[in-house]
Amino acid sequence: MTFAQLFARATCLQQPYGWQCRLAGGEAADPQGLFSHGTVCQSRLIQIPTGLGKTAGVVLAWLWNRVCPQPSVIGDSPAPTSRWPRRLVYCLPMRTLVEQTADNVRAWLANLWQHRAELGLSAAALEELLWLASEGTPEHPAHSPVILMGGEELEDACRDWDVYPEKPAILIGTQDMLLSRALNRGYGMSRYRWPMHFGLLNNDCLWVHDETQLMGVGLETSVQMAGFRERFGNLAPCAHWWMSATLAEARLITPEAPARPPQLQLSVPEQSVLEVQRRLTAVKRLRQADASLDGDHAAYAKSLAGEVVSSHISGTLTLVIVNSVERAQAVFREVRKQSPKQPATLLHSRFRPAERRALVRRVLESAGDHIVVSTQVVEAGVDLSARTLFTELAPWSSLVQRFGRCHRHGEMTDTGADIRWVNLPDAEAAPYATEDLAAARKLLAGLTDASPAALASVTAPPAPEAPRHVIRPKDLRELFDTTPDIAGADLDVSRFIRESEDSDCLVFWRGAAPEADSPGPSREELCPVPVGQLREFVEKQKDKAVWVWDALDRQWTHPERFVPGRTYWLLSSLGGYDPGLGFDRRSKAEVVPVTQPVPPPEAHDEEPGTNLPRIETLEEHTAAVVSHSVQLAADFGLPRELCEALTLAAQWHDVGKAHPVFQAALRRANPALQDSVLYAKSGSQARLVFEGRPHFRHELASALAFRALAARTTPQASLVAYLIAAHHGKVRLSLRSLPGESEPPRPPDGGDPLYARGIWHGDTLPALTLNGAAWPAVTLSLAPMQIGLGPDGEPSWLESCLALRDAPTLGPFRLALLEALLRAADMRASAVAADAYGKPRS
Fold first, then answer.
1. How far is 357 from 209, CA to CA, in rounded Å?
2. CA distance 125 to 66
3. Are residues 269 and 355 located together in one domain of the fold?
4. H-helix or E-strand containing 426?
5. Angle, nearest 10°, between helix axes 18-25 and 54-67?
6. DSSP structure class, residue 591
């Protein structure tokens, strides 16, 4: 098999471009793809003009190097372990780009599986491809692409990507969802699963940051995170690709990454290829529009819509790109008013997924004679080719991208295309800086040709020196701890993901107020809304009919403040949404809810994976978790000492379920359980109730038992204890009591009682036998929750955890990956894959 064969079977195109061949096979690769070798995965900048297959180039380069035959492979013998990362993480700034990219990847994988017999793949490569794609049967579903965009993936097989960390995966998501997970504060997901994604996304990944000109501060964060992965180390290396037709190279140099990666551009021979030449020299006539914004927004919308309608050529696409959602809505209303019979569509980022998909599909499938009014969501990556383009003034890099949506493929050979730019006053520059617009205005003044070849000769203005929040090592170390502060608040990462005015939360509408067991929202219900706009919208309502989930109190409560990345429940009667306009503060009509609910969000004292419809003893479950842990450690090639630590943590992870409080809860759920047996699973799907011990966490009891019985004779005892405690993501660095816990009686000396997460100082666990080892009864000590050395001379829990986090041989990324491996082993041993909210599925 050659790369050209794989490329052709995947994309149904004749052959790859030369730059795609160099990316997949190295600088010396045959420009027609007639090679059968791979290359080394390394970080790089990719600057390729629009319309030349960047998405296909990067995805198929990764896939080729995962499955391509190696010189040492003979017949169907196992292929050597690929040096390319297991996970391709495709990070995009816009939701519209996510859906289109995912559709393409899904089609490419399906095509390759369909033509697998023609490719001569090894048995190991076929196994990887089968996992990624699908055989079309329930036994072999597709596991990629995984979509992370405004909530969790809905397909079961894709949603469980973190339960199978040893398998290949293609993750495609917005920078909000992906960067927040890489920072251990994942938006739109259970907080208790944050550490898993933190560990997996900072180890063994090829990060692709596409359309970097739209990323804002997320670009600097992505570069800093690349530097952190080098600085703190990981168990499997990561590589990083930054892609755009207009790379701002100066912004790719940060304190943690002072050296710029090598750059991939079109070579001179590649530029002379006929297909490339046609795109580079496509005729695009450029002039200033008659309409301009002078402060009267209503008059501007009417004027611009009039010019658009009069300029539209029947049978062709006219694209209008404006810089704000509210202006786009106003212009769209005017277009419909002035030309009611003209097919027209509005696109922006404030739609629910179902409506957004329908609108995008309508635009992409229309044969012509269409007016599309949009914001920046079509600025890049969307395969539109307009005959006429109107665009508001924007930074030069954005304008270049917008021009690329016009006469995109050089197909309008007879007529060419027309572009009109709309001037904006400085007062209307937002969301851009006035100096950026001034620089672009100056360049446009003398320009009449917007073809890629003409634009290449324009000296772009230097990247702005706008002040941005740059994440520092101290910030990352603090983010490792996922415990909320005493007030219940978390460290806010939104300033590292988008500029403050762009920070979104997620909202969904329901017809009634929530109850404690109300189904949580599915991704199909969620609409992204700027935090400030939601705050203003709610404050204007007479009824504050908005709620947010409180994991500690196990209920939906009225929020005291609105936080980026959080999910809010709104009553349908409040309005605020129109299927054709998206989120609209002016809309008073009742919103029709989307009915695709998922289980209720996870509470702190819930036990996902315990309320299964089958009985399992503690010894049976422990043996299964140990087996899965050993296999995962081997799959990842962990060093011997880490294999031993992971295995020992698996042996001890559920010892705390022997606690009388836990066993009593199991028997309340299933009275048929025998009194003489210690159980891990009740065989009942009833929720466990820990009477008298709210917020009870068995994993804390497990860790304390290990410290008391085995720590002194165990190398790396602190690591083992941490992994035991952290295996549900609820007990990590901080040991303290939570609001609503029951306080034990005061000790005889009159001091303050020690208690945390439902465990009381002095609790006892019975004697038990696990994995062939017999352990005596043990009294649990909560002395480690106090600062300083304990009575046994050991450091406090917090101090020992911080030492692990800061250890050069571990660090935050290695430690989090070990957490993720133990959690995956536990989930798989339970024959359960926990969904986004931690609820089990059989």
1. 23
2. 7
3. no
4. none
5. 30
6. P
